[in-house]
Design brief:
Helix content: 25-40%
Radius of gyration: 20 Å
Strand order of the largest sheet: 1-6-4-5
CATH superfamily of the largest domain: DNA methylase specificity domains
Order of helices and strands: HEHEEEEEHHHH
CATH topology of the largest domain: Adenine-n6-DNA-methyltransferase TaqI, Chain A, domain 2
Shape: globular
Number of helices: 6
Length: about 190
């Protein structure tokens, strides 16, 4: 089934149109999700969210909601599932927001699928631009999503969640090992 058949896909807000240029134009300040907030593997980074001073009150369609999938429109085309921890963030135009219209799929599975090698190959085949490869809503809508049972989708989502937790733990272990290594070598140098 095509992604466009099972989901509503919209591009985020073009920020330049709504950015307040002077203090007195500011109608509201929003938290903004950016490229640096999302790792290439689909994990939310611990980077602080930027703020965006807007010259207008913005519609809720431009903000993350639990159950959304965000996908980066430039390489590496990373998708991320939006849970309650990252609801209410303003989405800029370099992401698309995917909202499922059917109960046959769960968003965690769709995010995993869009991060799969199979989907990435589709993005690469239909990419536009030479200096910076990009994709668009039409390409996203045409991506074939493999239909499997809800239970299989949940199994994949659980495995993905465990995999991402393991990656995070391994990353923290590497950081701690580097501190340990630097401490030991520092002590050895200071001995002499």
């Amino acid at each position: 089934m095509k992604l466009g058949e099972i989901a509503k896909i919209r591009t985020g807000l073009v920020l330049t149109r709504k950015k307040a240029s002077i203090k007195y134009e500011v109608k509201d300040i929003y938290k903004l999700i950016t490229l640096k907030n999302i790792g290439d593997n689909g994990v939310l980074n611990k980077e602080a969210f930027e703020t965006f001073p807007s010259n207008d009150k913005l519609g809720k369609e431009y903000f993350t909601q639990k159950g959304d999938i965000l996908i980066r429109l430039s390489a590496p085309y990373t998708a991320i599932y939006i849970d309650e921890r990252i609801e209410g963030l303003l989405v800029p135009s370099y992401f698309s927001i995917i909202r499922l219209k059917t109960q046959k799929y769960i968003p965690e599975y769709i995010a995993w699928y869009l991060n799969s090698d199979r989907a990435k190959r589709e993005f690469i085949k239909s990419q536009t631009g030479t200096a910076m490869s990009t994709t668009n809503k039409t390409v996203l809508s045409s991506i074939d999503i493999k239909e499997i049972s809800i239970n299989q989708q949940k199994d994949i989502a659980k495995i993905q969640e465990l995999y991402l937790k393991e990656r995070e733990l391994l990353s923290r272990l590497i950081e701690e090992k580097e501190k340990y290594y630097k401490g030991i070598t520092g002590k050895l140098i200071n001995k002499n």
